[in-house]
Specification:
This protein has helices at 19-30, 67-87, 100-106, 127-142, 151-160, 206-214, 234-245, 262-266, 283-286, 293-300, 311-317, 329-341, 343-359, 363-366, 368-375, and strands at residues 6-10, 34-41, 55-61, 91-94, 112-116, 145-148, 166-168, 191-198, 219-226, 251-254, 271-274, 304-308, 321-324. The chain is of the alpha/beta class.
C-alpha cells in the first residue's frame, strides 16, 4: 500500500472512548487504508478498539493532571512525531484539543490534516491550554476539513474560524452494529429501562430513580458506564438513594464495558434513557442532540426512547419515544408508564428508529463527505 493511503489518528486519550474514531478508522481500513491510532490509556481504562488487520493501535500510559502529565504529554508528542517521520502517513487525523499542537507540527512533514472536535474546549485556563487553543486556530485554518458532531457547534466553530472548512458528522453507529428486528414476545417478566454512558447528574438525574419508585415493581433499570472526573462519588449517591427508596434490587449496576459488549446488554431492554437538562450553561450539553452516541445506539438496538422535552430533542427523536421533564419524577414516570402499558407501541417506536439508523442515521452515511475528501 502506498503512503497515499496511510492515516495516523492522534488523540491524547484512549481512542476506544470515542466510537466515531472506531467507526471512521474501520471504514478507512475496509476501503484499503493502512490505519494507525496513537493514544494514551490510564491504568483502569481497559476499553479497546476491535482488531482489524489494517488497524494498529498503540497507547502509552496516561498520567493524572500535574507536573508529571506535562512531561508525559511531551513524551507522547515526541512519539507521534517520530511515527510521522518514520511511517510517512499522508494524513493526520487529530481528534482532541491536546492533539492540535502535534498535528500542526506534523504538517511540516508534508501531511495533510483533519481535525475532529468531539467536545468544545474551555476558552480560558492555564498557559498550556491557551497554547493548545492557539494551535487549534492554526489547525482549523490549515486542516482540509474540521468535523463537528452537531450543527450548533459547527456554526460556532465556523464563526470562530471563518477560514475553516467545516462539516457536521453525527455520532451514529455503524451499519454493522444495527441489530436484528425484535421478536414480539420478548421478556415478559420485567420491563427493562436501559442507560449507558457517563454517570453524572446531568445525564442520569436523581429524579430518574424517583420515577422508578413510582412505577410497577416489574420495572427494572440497568445502568452501564463510568464516573467522569467531575462526577466522582455520584454512583455511591445513587446507590444510597435507591436504598432509601427501597428499590435497590430493581437497579442493575454495571461498569464500563467495550462497545461491542453493549449490544447484548440491550437485547432484553425496552426503553433507552437519553435525558439531558432542559437548559445548561455548558455548551456541550446544549448541543447533544446528534452528538449523543447513546441515543443512536438505542435506536440501532430497536429500543424506544425516553428523551427530554426540549425542542431540539423532540424535533429529532420525538417520533421514536416519549419526552419528559428530567427533573420531575412524576413526568418521567408518566412517560414511561405510557410505554409500559402499550408494549406494541413501544416495539413499533423502537423498530421505526432501527429502520432510520439502517437507512440514514449510520456512520457510513454521515462520513461520506470526509471519505470522499480523503480518497480524492
Amino acid at each position: 500500500m502506498s503512503t497515499n493511503h496511510r492515516i495516523l489518528y492522534i488523540q491524547y486519550t484512549n481512542p476506544a472512548n470515542y466510537p466515531p474514531l472506531e467507526h471512521s478508522s474501520r471504514i478507512l481500513a475496509d476501503a484499503g487504508w493502512d490505519v494507525r491510532l496513537l493514544g494514551t490509556r490510564s491504568g483502569r481504562d481497559d476499553l479497546a478498539v476491535p482488531d482489524h488487520p489494517r488497524i494498529k493501535v498503540r497507547g502509552g500510559q496516561g498520567v493524572a493532571p500535574g507536573a508529571m502529565q506535562k512531561l508525559n504529554y511531551l513524551s507522547y508528542a515526541a512519539s507521534v512525531l517520530s511515527e510521522v517521520a518514520r511511517w510517512r502517513p499522508s494524513w493526520v487525523y487529530a481528534s482532541d484539543l491536546w492533539s492540535c499542537p502535534i498535528a500542526v507540527a506534523a504538517l511540516r512533514f508534508g501531511c495533510r490534516a483533519i481535525y475532529h472536535e468531539h467536545d468544545e474546549p474551555p476558552h480560558t485556563g492555564s498557559m498550556f491550554l491557551r497554547s493548545c487553543l492557539r494551535s487549534r486556530r492554526t489547525l482549523a485554518r490549515r486542516a482540509a476539513v474540521c468535523v463537528l458532531p452537531n450543527e450548533q457547534p459547527r456554526v460556532r466553530f465556523a464563526m470562530e474560524h471563518p477560514e475553516a472548512h467545516t462539516v457536521r458528522v453525527w455520532n451514529c453507529p455503524s451499519l454493522a452494529e444495527v441489530q436484528p428486528p425484535r421478536t414480539e414476545g420478548g421478556d415478559r417478566k420485567t420491563f427493562k429501562l436501559y442507560y449507558h454512558g457517563s454517570l453524572g447528574a446531568p445525564l442520569v438525574p436523581p429524579a430518574l430513580l424517583g420515577a422508578v419508585r413510582l412505577l410497577p415493581g416489574d420495572v427494572r433499570l440497568r445502568l452501564i458506564g463510568y464516573e467522569t472526573i467531575g462526577s466522582q462519588g455520584y454512583v455511591d449517591a445513587l446507590r444510597l438513594q435507591a436504598r432509601n427508596f427501597g428499590i435497590e434490587a430493581r437497579i442493575e449496576w454495571k461498569g464500563k464495558v467495550n462497545r461491542n459488549q453493549l449490544w447484548p446488554q440491550m437485547r432484553d431492554a425496552a426503553v433507552g434513557i437519553s435525558l439531558v437538562p432542559r437548559s445548561s450553561s455548558e455548551p456541550n450539553l446544549e448541543a447533544l442532540a446528534g452528538a449523543s452516541n447513546k441515543t443512536f445506539d438505542y435506536l440501532a438496538a430497536g429500543l424506544a426512547l425516553l428523551i427530554t422535552d426540549r425542542p431540539d430533542w423532540t424535533e429529532m427523536f420525538g417520533d421514536y419515544g416519549f419526552a419528559c421533564d428530567p427533573e420531575n419524577p412524576d413526568s418521567i414516570a408518566g412517560a414511561l408508564m405510557e410505554l409500559y402499558t402499550d408494549r406494541a407501541v413501544t416495539r413499533s417506536l423502537g423498530e421505526s428508529g432501527r429502520q432510520r439508523i439502517r437507512e440514514e442515521w449510520n456512520y457510513e452515511r454521515q462520513f461520506e463527505h470526509v471519505l470522499e475528501l480523503l480518497n480524492a
